[in-house]
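Blinded run. Sample ID left blank on purpose so nobody reads anything into the name before looking at the predicted structure. Input follows.
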Amino acid sequence: TGDAAASARWAEDALAIFRAVGHPSGTASVLGLVARLAHDRGDHRAATLAYQEGLRLWAQTDARWSAAGEHGVAGEVAGFPRWAGINDRRFLLLALSGLAGLAAAHGQSEQAVQLLGAVDRRWSDAAMATMPSVSARLDELKAAARAALGERSFAAGYAAGKRLRLDDAVALALTIAVPGPVAAVPDPATT
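Blinded prediction complete.
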């Protein structure tokens, strides 16, 4: 559990540092933490925006590597580009699964199930088995999506998601829209 306000401050401090030094991978990783903290406090819009900002940073990095000839169908290793380290892979799957959960919670079950398929395709290649709480949450999301869509639609969407290239899964995740204003994170030092 812990102190959510302190965690948010530390995450914002880390985000500022990674942005200042121009470290896109570190920035994306911290944005994943910012998103999870926003989700935990019930701010789905801020969580969505943070995950999506991190995915955009990843996509920009991937585009630079692609332009240098380091990516493409031949450059993917088990659904990830060759350059992506374990932390990049984990961030991607946590962001995609986080956005799948947000999509499901906001009536976007078709997108959610495709993202879940894309995540499952890459799960073992990102050493995610070491995160059983995330696995349990994905099982809950799959059950909810199956209930919302019915078995046939779920199976079709899940299979379509498993066939998505990673850049297409990221593009799909960037279409997730959660209504509502972004709630400001109160700064305990000023309150």
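Unblinding after everyone has recorded impressions. The helical segments are 4-21, 24-40, 44-67, 86-105, 109-122, 132-149, 151-163, 166-173.
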